[in-house]
Design goal:
Oligomer: single chain
Order of helices and strands: HHHHH
Shape: elongated
Largest sheet: none
Strand content: under 5%
Structural class: mainly alpha
Number of helices: 5
């Protein structure tokens, strides 16, 4: 891996960590905007807590050797769901979730070697 790729990947992981720890913490502490968003989804506030735990936990996994792919996969899946909720329930602006999802997918691709043997054939 070249230095450009190495440091670029580190920058993307740092950005994702900042974004998801901030968003996950806002969900976990019950920020008014997050409570309202999950109220609009209609699945109850338990879903806000689960999403917050996934976001913070997955952001941490981005830095755990051998577990980066799991963290990136969880973040990618979470953002796919977020884009769907924005398009179908919440309204405009699915763009931030889509961008974070694409960056998470990039990290997942960079660590795809960790997935070999993790899934039974």
């Amino acid at each position: 891996m070249s230095n450009v790729h190495k440091y670029g990947l580190l920058a993307v992981k740092a950005l994702l960590t900042l974004a998801f720890v901030a968003a996950g913490a806002a969900k976990l502490i019950g920020a008014e905007m997050m409570v309202a968003t999950f109220e609009a989804i209609g699945w109850g506030q338990w879903f806000r807590y689960v999403t917050g735990v996934i976001e913070v936990g997955a952001a941490i996994l981005l830095w755990v050797p051998g577990r980066q792919a799991i963290g990136a996969f969880l973040l990618t899946a979470t953002m796919i769901a977020a884009v769907g909720f924005h398009l179908l329930v919440l309204g405009p602006s699915a763009v931030p979730a889509a961008v974070l999802g694409l960056l998470s997918a990039l990290v997942l691709y960079a660590h795809r070697g960790q997935l070999r043997g993790a899934v039974p054939a």
